[in-house]
Amino acid sequence: AGCFKLFFTDDMLETIRLNTNINSEDQPKKSYCGRKGEGRFRPVTVDEMNHFLGLIVYLGMVKISSLKDYWSTSFPFHGLWARRFMSRSRFEAILSVLQLENPRTDKDRQGDPLRKVRSFMESIRTNCMQL
C-alpha cells in the first residue's frame, strides 16, 4: 500500500470515487448490481475504491484468460485472492461506471482527446516528479 500511495493519493482516490458515483447516478441502466436480487447500484466507498484499484493492478500482473476465473474456486484457480476483497459482481458493477473525470463537466472539453483522463494523468505525473 505504501508504494501505491506514492502515485495515487487519497485525494485522487476520493475524486475517482466521487466521479464514479456521479456517473452511476447519471447512467442508472448501466450501473447494474450484477446478480438478481441485489438491487440498485450502491455508492462506492473509499475502501472499495482502494480494493478495486488494487484488483486492477493485480489483474494486470496475473494473466488469466477470463475475468471470471480471478474469482474462481476451482482448480487451478483456487487460492487466487480477488474474491477476498470484492465479489465479482461488485467489481463488474464498479467497472461499468468507473469515471476518472467528472462526467458532468467532461463535456466542456470535447476537443481534448484525453479529456477523460487528463487531470488524473497530470496528478500521477506530478507525483512521479516529486519522488
What's this model, at a glance?
The protein has 131 residues and is an all-alpha fold. It has helices at residues 2-7, 10-26, 46-61, 82-85, 88-97, 118-129. It has six helices and no strands.
Write up what this structure looks like.
- It is a single chain.
- With 131 residues, the chain is mainly α.
- Helices cover 50% and strands 0% of the residues.
- The protein has 6 helices and no strands.
- The mean pLDDT is 82.
Classify the secondary structure makeup into a structural class. Answer: mainly alpha
Secondary structure tally, helices: 6
Taken as a percent bin, the fraction of beta residues is: under 5%
- Shape call: globular
Largest β-sheet summary = none
Tell me how many strands there are.
0
| Global Rg | 16 Å
Contiguous low-pLDDT stretches (5 residues minimum) are: none
Separation, N- and C-terminal Cα atoms: 16 Å
What is the helical fraction, as a range of percent?
40-55%
Mean pLDDT: 82
